[in-house]
Amino acid sequence: MNTFETNEFKRVLSRYEKSKREGHSCYLDSDDFIDISDYYLDLDKPLESLDAVNEGMRLHPSDELLMSVKAGVLIYLHHFDEAMELVEVLDPQKNYDVKYLQAQLKYAVEENVEEADAMFHEWLQDVEKEWEYGRGNSRNFTMEDDLDDDMDEPVSEDDAEREMRSAYIHVLMSYVELSSIDADKQIREWIESYLKSPTLACWIIILIWKMAGWYLLWHRTCKGNMRRH
Fold it and tell me: Could you give the residue ranges of the DSSP H alpha helices within 43-156?
């Protein structure tokens, strides 16, 4: 089940939103703030997402996962300088999603396609390795983990496929959203790579391609409307 559909998350979100309405803060675990931030970002409400992660960092100032989530939201908002300050102090050996953030910044700020591509592929390999070993929880997995000890129960093939599909979509949308140059070449290459992965459903490719185009058109239209107002 989607995290956002669980009763536990709904209760946490209700507490958080009530505290915001009443003008006071409530104590939540760092993971709860991450989930709330992800929830708002999923609704395309990046400012609310940023508010949630900032509140989390106020209560958990040394939490590196919160820092990485904030960096991701700042990248989404194209606040690249602020994002870089956070990413520079994060260790990709402790949280491999930092590699994804580094790749996004490499592409968005430097427009260095080759290095960004290599970093995206490295991140994708880490995602695949995690699911291959049945971890299924990137927040608890680090590159320093001993994969032979305390193994979790293997995740289902469907779960692993969904996660890999999501990872590819994240990369594709990064190219669509962050590029100031023509991203068609990179998108095509990633789609070709996707098609070569035997465990992934190929029918989704056409949908990804169309969604990327629709999203880019919609997002540029929205930005244009915001500038006019």
Answer: 46-59, 64-76, 80-87, 97-110, 113-132
